[in-house]
Structures are given as C-alpha cells and as structure tokens.
Design a protein that fits this description.
Blueprint lengths: L2 H13 L2 H6 L20 H7 L4 H5 L2 H15 L4 E2 L6 H5 L4 E4 L3 E4 L6 H4 L11 H14 L4 E6 L1 H10 L7 H9 L1 H25 L3 E5 L8 H7 L1 H11 L6 E4 L7 H6 L4 E3 L6 H7 L5 E6 L8 H18 L3 E5 L9 H15 L2
Bound molecules: coproporphyrinogen I (1CP).
C-alpha cells in the first residue's frame, strides 16, 4: 500500500472504531474506554520524560507531546488517545502572561477584571500553535486505528482562571464580574469562545477525530445563570466546529442540574461526573446524545473487587440508558493512582461488555 492508501485505511478504521461508534450511538463490539487525564499524572514513564521540563514548555515540543500522548495508549490499551496539552495553552499562545506552577496549576500574572484587561485577548491564529499541528500530524501517523481526541477549555472555566488569577474554590471575582458587569462578561466570554473554537479547529484540521470541551468548573453555577451568562458562549464554540462532523463531547464536574442545558448547548456526547447515574443522566440530557463516564476516580484506590463492582454499576446504568456509552472516570485520573489499577479496569470493561 502506498503511504496515502495506508493513511486512508487507518482513517476508515478510526471512523469504525468502538469509540467513534459509541459517540455516534451505533452498535459497538465492546464499550470503549479512555480516561480523562490519562496522559501525564500517574505514569512513571511520564514523570521521567518530563523531568526538568516545565509544563507549558513540554506542550510546545511535538516529539515529546507525541510520546506522552502515546504512553497511556500503549500501557492501558485504551480506545482513544487524548492530545497532551493544557486548557491554558491557547491563551499562552496569544501572549497572555501565565504559567502552570507545579502543585498549583495555572497562574495568570494580570487577572482580567476590567475592560483594559480584555485587551490581553486577541483571536488565535493557526500559526500561533503550529507545534500543535505538527504534533497531531506525528500522532495520527502513529496511532493507526486509535482515534485522537482534541480538547479545549470552555469559556467559563477559562474565564475563572483569567479573572481569579489562578485556581479558586469559590470563583468570587469571576461571579462578581458575571453579576456586576454583564456587558464586559459577555465580551470576555465571546472572545474566549472565539479562541477556543479556533484552537479546536486547528486540532480537527490536523487530524483529531473527536473533541472534548472541558467546562470543569461550570458546576459552580445555577441553571438560570448558566443559561443566561455562559451557555451562549459554549454554544458558539460547538456551532463553530459543527461543520466538521466530528463528535463533540461536553464535560463538567458537579453538573447534575446542568446536564440538559449542556446537551442543548450543542454536544453530541455529554460527560457525566460520578454523582448522577447514567440512566438518570439520560433522562436529563436531551434525546439522541451519547453519554460519557462515570466512575468516581477515588474508587481506583479501593481493592479490585470494589472497582469491578463500581464498573458493573456504571455499565448496567449505561445499558439501561439506551444511549451510546463511552466508559470514563467522572473526572480526571488522580496523580497518585496506581497505573495498574487503570490497566485492569480497561481490560475488565472490555471483557464484561464484549458483544
Ligand atoms: O507538570 C504537570 O504534570 C502538571 C500537571 C498537569 C498536567 C499533566 C497540568 C496542570 N495540566 C496537565 C495536562 C492536561 N490538562 C491534560 C492532558 C491530557 C490528559 O487528560 O491526559 C488535560 C486534558 C488538561 C486539561 C485541564 N487543565 C483542565 C480540564 C480537565 C480537568 O481535569 O478538569 C483543567 C481544569 C486544567 C487546569 C490545570 N492544569 C494543571 C492543573 C493542575 C490544573 C487544575 C488546577 C485547578 O485545580 O484549578
């Protein structure tokens, strides 16, 4: 086979993969599994390869990104890879002064709290993140039939870091801006929606075959506030990438009361944390959408029998939901998780769900 035929062959195999079939709500040979934060974090080979390289620098090194993205695929036999990066990368790429500090997370030098602060946010051009295009090209060539998930931070979650200046428990400055200056807030979220959509487009055009929008902290909002002040920006992101036909996954934590609206914002797959069983989630999410989740990440610290019992519960609830199901945790892998517990869980879900 010529190289282009080989590439075309793997593209067809990717489209027929259990992961993409589940996202589209089609029949699957087994329930596909991947883990949020599967790359990085708990793997010793990750810690070794990252030694001495700051997080944001590592995201700009295509060969390194390729290797880190592939590590969990090789080790765990997961059904999809997630591109190794961070939600802050596109903001760094347009020149926002920020860093990702070990043990803390993203820290922003000049938090955005007034109109002048908005000037830090210009649109993202593909050339700003050419290392992403390069890394995804390398990855797609090596992944063969395994799909690659691209991702970005949703406008609310990005705004929470930009307005607070770093990780925050209560989001007090963010909410003060949202309630106190709706006009400035809308402009902030609108600019972030454009940057996020631009970042997802770069990833899809480079070869990502699904995308996940991480609105990790949106569960801090009541439904009315979400609908009025956040949903239009997230919907804009989904709308901007709808034309590519790749599944769009929408995920947040503590979003039991928001699941319907998060589906309505334009997702094809709604990610659910561990607080809502998937059959109940299906009732809350509109029809025709697949579900992703939702084992509690801390369950992996319990003995194997307990992990299996929880996996059974999730698989049974998913079967009862009648929707496409992508098995995942309800949030990211915790850094001190035993990697072997993850490998065992993948193989258990594959065996139990084989049809
Ligand atoms: O040096 C390090 O290893 C720092 C730890 C780390 C890693 C491995 C950070 C800092 N980011 C990442 C990579 C990362 N971030 C990925 C890689 C791909 C994968 O999932 O395997 C992804 C998808 C993210 C996305 C991300 N970053 C989110 C959304 C996902 C989620 O878990 O909710 C969020 C909220 C961030 C911000 C962030 N970056 C890093 C940290 C520690 C945090 C969270 C800080 C906080 O509590 O607010």
């Amino acid at each position: 086979m010529s190289e282009s035929n080989a590439l075309q062959g793997s593209r067809a195999a990717v489209q027929d993969s259990a992961f993409l079939r589940a996202c589209r709500g089609e029949a699957v040979p087994h329930t596909p599994v991947w883990f949020m934060r599967q790359a990085g974090r708990s793997l010793p080979e990750y810690l070794k390869i990252r030694e001495g390289i700051p997080m944001l620098d590592s995201c700009m090194m295509p060969e390194l990104v390729k290797e880190i993205t592939l590590q969990p695929v090789r080790r765990h036999n997961v059904d999809a890879a997630i591109y190794f990066s961070d939600i802050m990368v596109p903001l760094k790429a347009i020149g926002v002064d920020l860093d990702i500090k070990p043990g803390i997370g993203p820290v922003v030098a000049n938090p955005i709290r007034d109109r002048a602060g908005l000037e830090q946010l210009r649109p993202l051009e593909p050339g700003d993140v050419s290392y992403v295009t390069e890394a995804i090209g390398l990855l797609v060539a090596e992944l063969g039939a395994t799909p690659l998930i691209g991702f970005a931070g949703a406008p609310y979650t990005l705004a929470s870091y930009l307005v607070e200046g770093g990780p925050s428990k209560n989001h007090e400055h963010t909410k003060a801006l949202m309630y106190g200056d709706p006009e400035l807030w809308q402009e902030l979220l609108d600019r972030l929606a454009d940057i996020t959509a631009g970042f997802l487009k770069v990833q899809i055009e480079a070869g990502a075959s699904a995308v996940q929008l991480f609105d990790s902290w949106v569960g801090a909002l009541a439904p009315n506030d979400y609908r009025r002040s956040v949903m239009p920006a997230s919907a804009k992101v989904f709308d901007e990438v709808a034309g590519y036909g790749v599944p769009r996954i929408h995920f947040g934590v503590g979003t039991g009361e928001l699941l319907g609206l998060m589906g309505e914002a334009g997702a094809d797959v709604v990610g659910v944390d561990w607080r809502v069983p998937l059959d109940e989630a299906a009732r809350r999410v509109g029809p025709g959408k697949a579900l992703q989740g939702n084992i509690d990440p801390t369950v992996l610290f319990a003995p194997e029998a307990a992990v299996r019992a929880k996996a059974d519960e999730v698989l049974d609830a998913a079967a009862a939901s009648g929707r496409g199901h992508v098995f995942n945790l309800g949030h990211g892998v915790l850094p001190s998780t035993d990697p072997d517990a993850l490998t065992r869980l993948v193989s258990y879900v594959h065996e139990r769900s084989a049809r």
